[in-house]
Amino acid sequence: MFMQRAYLKIVAVIAAIALLGFSTVGNYGASWDEGTEISIVKYNFEWIVKGREIPKDLKYYGVLFNFTAEVAYQAQQLFQQGLNYNPLQDQTLEEGDRGVAEAIYKRLKVKHSLTFLVSLIAYIAVAGIVGILAGWEFAWIAPPFLVLLPRFWGHSFFNPKDVPFAALFTLGTWLGAYLIDRYIQAKPKYIRLGKNALTNYSILYGILIGLVTGIRVGGFFLLFFLPLTHLIVGISKGKFLHYFLSCWKFYLLIGFAWAATTTLIHPASWSNPVQWFIATLQYLSSHAWPGKNTFAGQSLSATEIPWYYLPQWFHITTPVIFQVTLLLALILLTIKYKKLNTLQQACAILVLLQIFFLPIVAILKQSALYNGIRQFIFVLPGIAALCVIALIWIYQTLQKKGFKLFYIALIIVLLSPIAVDAIAVHPYEYVYFNRLAGGLKNTYGQYDHDYWGLSLREGMEWLNVNAQPNSTISIGGQPYLAQMYADSHFKFLDIEEDLRYGKKGKPDYYLSMHYLNLQGVFSDCPIVHQVKRQGASLATIKKCS
After folding, report:
1. Residues whose CB is less than 8 angstroms from the CB of residue 101 and which lie 6 or more positions away in sequence, other chains included
2. What does 206-218 look like in DSSP terms, one character per residue?
3. Fewer CB near the last or first residue (10 Å), C or N of the chain?
4. CB 529 within 8 A of CB 539
């Protein structure tokens, strides 16, 4: 009965989060990479059917979520249009065609909802992690704390790569703890391959790691996190190396299941899976990203950033209460570790690996980094879980009811400004900066803000109402980000090909995101409108006629 009440609370909280998310998903614009992510499905399809090479570096990118989203879109169209619907009708569109923006827009209306739906896996997983470490009666608290990490919440609606990766990676952390506990608790005579639970769970876990890798190749690190955690927990429980080695067949099975799943969902790997995987790792570890980072007031390439790039970004974008409670969680875990049972120890170690391992590797390797913490969104669910665990453990030490009520009220007061700021920047929560950093206004020009151009939607919607019919418009940023929201009578001019950055004429209006100083083009044209949040401009509209 107790567990049923605990599960019902979790279900109720997840349902409330789902209701909030699905009611606001339509408010978000599109991000710079979404057209490319959609095209990955097309290129893989042509590779399979026609043998055409996948262009550029897209053969190294995950296919799984993009393919799932395309299937969902095609299913919707088939249901709406009937059996006469042609699923390949958009394949003939050429780059630059206005129809490309329309085709992307139709898909994003489905894909954004699916992205948020998949993100709910992370909310469930953090509840599970807190349930293991702090008790299931408190597990329902974890999902709201993850909501209060604006950088995660904001990305949850439009990021088709990092959010699904974070959700499945966190699921792998949670379920991995249970698998390790089963390995350690199993009697020696049951540690064998065959028709048994350990074999089945191992195969399923290998498939899960394959699915994570199918979104971003970094998911394969779970293959190493699991045995490393098993070894550490086994040693601490007095079951040394010989016991760990008795499970080698299960780890080999996990590896086979991972390899088969990863190969299956990456068509580019079919001819030579090993060579493809090695090439993918080499490419992603030394990706020569051509853009620029605005960091501490400087414009830096991905390879010029200082070693503290990631720590600084986490410091200025993670709410202060989370930073303080994460430190408390690390201290309390160190103190309590030996008293934890096998399942709890495994869970704690896997969460710590999720949070710290890959960021530390990136710092030590001086990896090319960009877009703030975007590539490391997957650490945020683990941070949320540990923060909740620390707060619960402190709560459990309080004896008097009055102290407990004061403690709860204090936490609510400290969390309230985060909610206030998130509402203030909506639907641009992904550009949240904490109050210690000065919020959006005081970090403007010092750090990248709307680097993905979501605000171009709001700017285009202003033009729909205020610009003269049949006006010419140029976009500072990815053109389709605005075109998909534009009224049909507008004509779009490419600022490079058609106008050559103002040297051969000007459009009637210039709408620009604030990135790479694109807002500086047509400097003599007056500003007529700005998309602003908390006093910071995210997009600018100039009138040139």
Report:
1. 479, 480, 483, 484
2. HHHHHHHHTT-GG
3. N
4. no
Amino acid at 524: D
Torsions phi, psi for 247 (to 5 deg): -100, 10
Four-residue CA torsion sign, 313, 319, 320, 325: negative
Strands 491-492 and 472-476: parallel
Q: Give the tens place of pLDDT for each residue, 296-308.
A: 999 998 889 999 9
State the pLDDT confidence band at 93, using cuts at 50, 70 and 90.
low
Give me 212's structure tokens. Answer: 């994570």
Q: 3-state DSSP call for residue 54? A: coil
C-beta separation of 489 from 453 below 8 A: no
For residue 19, count other CB atoms closer than 10 A to its CB.
Answer: 10
The two beta strands, 293-295 and 491-492, are unpaired
Residues pairing with 542 in the sheet: 510, 527
Find the angle CA(263)-CA(112)-CA(437) to the nearest 5 degrees: 100
Residue 532 bridge partners (DSSP)? 537
Q: What is the 3-state secondary structure (H, E, C) of 274-294?
A: HHHHHHHHHHHHCCCCCCCEE
Residues, the chain? 545
* Token reading at 263: 């190969």
Radius of gyration for the alpha carbons in the chain, expressed in angstroms and rounded: 25
Mean pLDDT calculated for residue range 174-186: 93
Is the predicted pLDDT of residue 241 greater than 90, yes or no?
Answer: no
Do residues 310 and 374 lie in contact, with contact meaning Cβ atoms separated by under 8 Å?
Answer: no
